[in-house]
Structures are given as C-alpha cells and as structure tokens.
Amino acid sequence: MGSRSDWPTMANATKPLNELEVPFATAVVSAHRTPQRLVEFASEAHKNGTQVIIAGAGGSAHLPGMIAAMSPLPVIAVPVESRFMTGMDSLLSIVQMPKGIAVATQAVGASGAYNAGLMAAQMLSLGDAELQERLIAWRERQTDQVPLTVE
Ligand SMILES: Nc1c(C(=O)O)ncn1[C@@H]1O[C@H](COP(=O)(O)O)[C@@H](O)[C@H]1O
C-alpha cells in the first residue's frame, strides 16, 4: 500500500486470504515518497517466492502501475477512497494503463480490497489443487449464508 493510512481499507484483503490459508506479507511502498524502496520491492518480489502482488493506493495512485512496470508478477490494484474525490481520482489513475503493462483493477475501497484478496487466491489456486478445493468450499459456504427471504 502507498501509505499506512491505506491499511483500514487494505486490511480487508487479508480476510479471504486468512480464511483460505494463503500466506502473505504487507509493506508500505510509495512511488512518490519512497521511490528507491519501490524499485527494490518491485524488481525483487518475484525472486523471493512472491507470486501475486496486491497494490492499493489513493489519489494520484501511481503505485500499482509502477510495480507492474517493474515486476513480471500479476498486479491486482485497489483504488483507495481519497479525501477530495471519494476514490474517482484513484480509480481513473489506476485503471487507465497504457497498452503493454497490465494491472487487474478492482472496485474502489473496502470491497475492492476484499475482492483483491479473493482474486489473488484464485490466481494462486491455478497451481494449487488443495487451495482450489478450499475456494470451492468457501464459495459453497457463502452461498449457504444467503437467506432466501428477508424475515
Ligand atoms: N498514491 C499514493 C502513492 C503512490 O502511488 O505511489 N503513494 C502514496 N499514495 C497515496 O497517498 C494517499 C494519502 O497518503 P497519506 O494519508 O499518507 O497522506 C494514500 O491513499 C496513499 O496510497
């Protein structure tokens, strides 16, 4: 995430990851405030066992695209709600990537962060049959929890 202030949003990504027993690490990395840390993080991640990166940032959100530019790993982006434009600035600055560098952008805010965790697990499940089984069971539990009536 681009700032510690993104954590209340980005913590939502950890919920499905924990439920699906997917290990993860967190880091504060900013293209603007810690550019050297960004270069090291993005260029080294695929060498230390990381398989998917979830990048959340708000406002002038260059982080996901910059990570994607420097890493061969899939980058899932979360536009964090901003103070002045409620996340529209975050969304547009993340989603409008130039052809040739791909970022998988999720919805703005907490739900987007939650789905980023799910999407990461689904990507990882392509090479992990046990994780895929856990995902299928997770989906079935979710379906069972939706009541048929509003009473
Ligand atoms: N968008 C970026 C980047 C980046 O794109 O590299 N670095 C920090 N930020 C964002 O600035 C917002 C305000 O940060 P502060 O609350 O620390 O002032 C955060 O949402 C963060 O993601």
UniProtKB/TrEMBL annotation:
<dbReference type="Pfam" id="PF00731">
    <property type="entry name" value="AIRC"/>
</dbReference>
<dbReference type="InterPro" id="IPR033747">
    <property type="entry name" value="PurE_ClassI"/>
</dbReference>
<comment type="pathway">
    <text>Purine metabolism; IMP biosynthesis via de novo pathway; 5-amino-1-(5-phospho-D-ribosyl)imidazole-4-carboxylate from 5-amino-1-(5-phospho-D-ribosyl)imidazole (N5-CAIR route): step 2/2.</text>
</comment>
<dbReference type="GO" id="GO:0034023">
    <property type="term" value="F:5-(carboxyamino)imidazole ribonucleotide mutase activity"/>
</dbReference>
<keyword id="KW-0413">Isomerase</keyword>
<protein>
    <recommendedName>
        <fullName>N5-carboxyaminoimidazole ribonucleotide mutase</fullName>
        <ecNumber>5.4.99.18</ecNumber>
    </recommendedName>
</protein>
<feature type="binding site">
    <location>
        <position position="33"/>
    </location>
    <ligand>
        <name>substrate</name>
    </ligand>
</feature>
<keyword id="KW-0658">Purine biosynthesis</keyword>
<feature type="domain" description="PurE">
    <location>
        <begin position="1"/>
        <end position="146"/>
    </location>
</feature>
<dbReference type="InterPro" id="IPR024694">
    <property type="entry name" value="PurE_prokaryotes"/>
</dbReference>
<keyword id="KW-0456">Lyase</keyword>
<dbReference type="InterPro" id="IPR000031">
    <property type="entry name" value="PurE_dom"/>
</dbReference>
<comment type="similarity">
    <text>Belongs to the AIR carboxylase family. Class I subfamily.</text>
</comment>
<comment type="function">
    <text>Catalyzes the conversion of N5-carboxyaminoimidazole ribonucleotide (N5-CAIR) to 4-carboxy-5-aminoimidazole ribonucleotide (CAIR).</text>
</comment>
<dbReference type="GO" id="GO:0004638">
    <property type="term" value="F:phosphoribosylaminoimidazole carboxylase activity"/>
</dbReference>
<feature type="binding site">
    <location>
        <position position="3"/>
    </location>
    <ligand>
        <name>substrate</name>
    </ligand>
</feature>
<feature type="binding site">
    <location>
        <position position="6"/>
    </location>
    <ligand>
        <name>substrate</name>
    </ligand>
</feature>
